[in-house]
Amino acid sequence: MRLAIWKQPQFLIGSFILLSMIILSFMSPLFFDPPQEVKYLYEDGKLVDVAPFSPSQVPPFGTDKFGRNLLTLLINGAKYTLLIAIVIAVFRVFLSGLFAIVYHHYNVKLRPLLEDLVESTIFVPTSILAYLLLAPLAVKQAQEGIGFFEIVVIQCIILIFIGVPPLISIFSKDMGRITRKEHIVSTLSLGAKHRYVYIKHVLPEMGSRFLLVIAQQIIQVLILLAHLGVLLIFLGGVKTILDGDLLSTHEVFVSLTGEWSGLIGNNFQEIVHSPHVILVPLGFFSLTIFSMNLIINGMQNTMKKIERGAGS
Amino acid sequence: MSLGGYFKRLKSIMIGIIFIGFLPSLLYGFDQTINFQSYIFNRKTYDLFPGIFDKYVYSMTIFFGALLLGLFLAILFTFCTTLLPRLFKMMVYGMLTLFESIPDLFIVISLQLLIVYIYQKTGWLISNVTVVYDDKIYLLPILVLSVLPTVQLFRISFLLLEEERDKPYVTVAKSMGLGDYYILFQHVFRNVLFNLFLYFKTIFVFMLSNLFIMEYVFNIHGLMRIMLSPNIFVFIVGTIMITIPFLFLFELAQSRIDKSTGEKKEETA
């Protein structure tokens, strides 16, 4: 697997795009000064337009309604978005792998409780579930003032646990399939400990599967983040600031971490007036998901090749 | 399929849903609103019963309309691509990976904007893009919702078809002198359709989430949209209403699959 995957062009292209986005995001503040915020556009000393500007007025992607350059925002937000998605996906898979062992092994005792949860999460869309659990947190933050770091951690934990139940059922099915294989059964009947069998046989056999599921989960998390952005729930909580002139002030929500979904949510009300502010971040989401899909395709191709090689 | 098994599962799912509904109060320790009579949507109060049944029928109409449209288009496209030469097939597959990567939100918003744009340029409004009062729009939601299932089903059936064509029975049929199209229609397509059926759960979960975000963006007063209301009773009732028919369909489908593949259900041990 390790050697063969580097020969997959799809995998290489996908990981190149992702890596370059993350590296660019970390490096850009070191080398480039943040561009000035432009709220008003003058032409021959006359006021022509106010923010948000379209991509033709301020290349390449225009600005949002606070006059911040969209490209800078997106590059800065890339590291938060991608790293958070990766961390959540890895933890989801790790925890559900752990739980799946418990679930599979001590099936009888834990089954009633877990099965209720696992089965019912199928019928609730993840975005609604996430909203249900995260919305009270925003209220709590406004009332009690929880710290920024704390709130990110709590939100991440919730997002991790939302994804765990469906994965448990997938993994425990896989484990069931593997433990019914002959060599496992004979190992057990020869007197091996269960723990030994899981560590030595079951987990290595599922290794490539875990990687694949992590990649798929990253996509799921990204889509979930975009949905939550529209529902005005941002990672790191919101800050309400007053916008507009003295006569017509109105409150706007601003995402604190600056991840991409915050950009979508901030500008969602002005979708018809300035569509680029939403479409550009969504385009970046699509690009990320596309490169993840390329990685997944590469992984699947390698797995197929290995299987064929072992089979013939 | 046994009705007893269905009710047992339904019971356990209902317990799970009620547990999820009250999870926020368990986690954060505050009182949730429970109101059996009414809910608030867009700052107006509505009666919960019997109004919710109306919303339910509306949402399900959109859901199944989109599903059927998607299925139809996917089969049509699959059929068309089988007639293409090999090089084009690879190109189509590449395009599908690209299309599949587009988040549902992007498709919903860009189609909405497209229709506004067409209206601005030509004055021809294809469909209402947003809902102001309680009026119902059907055409646009169904179209929008059917885009991603089409792509997904197309991709799955495309892969299945490629796989199916290498199987021995196709070679046998060819050696018997049967025509290519005859084999394709009579044998290969049938098997592909059946295998497509195996993905029903994935498609369902995916479409439900799609439906939700579409109702939110278009401001449609449908079942998924009102499930967001702070009144937790609406969430519980709404989810149970979705569960009852779909669980039945799932069980039915599963029993059909088990029967035809001849595999026994997984051992519980």
Describe this structure in words.
- The complex is a heterodimer of chains A (312) and B (269).
- By secondary structure, chain A is mainly α.
- Chain A has a single domain (2-17, 60-305), classed as MetI-like fold, CATH 1.10.3720.
- Chain A contains ten helices and four strands; from the N terminus they run H-H-E-E-H-H-H-H-H-H-E-E-H-H.
- Chain A has helices spanning 2-5, 9-31, 70-105, 107-122, 126-144, 148-179, 182-189, 194-230, 260-266, 276-311, and strands at 40-43, 46-50, 238-243, 250-255.
- In chain A, helix 6 crosses helix 8.
- The two termini of chain A are 17 Å apart.
- Chain B is mostly helical.
- Chain B has two domains: 1-32 and 230-260, no CATH class; 51-226, MetI-like fold (Orthogonal Bundle), CATH 1.10.3720.
- Chain B has helices spanning 3-21, 23-28, 51-82, 86-100, 104-122, 139-165, 168-175, 180-197, 200-217, 223-226, 232-261; strands spanning 38-41, 44-47.
- Chain B has a two-stranded antiparallel ribbon with strand order 1-2.
- The interface between A and B is large, with 47 and 52 residues.
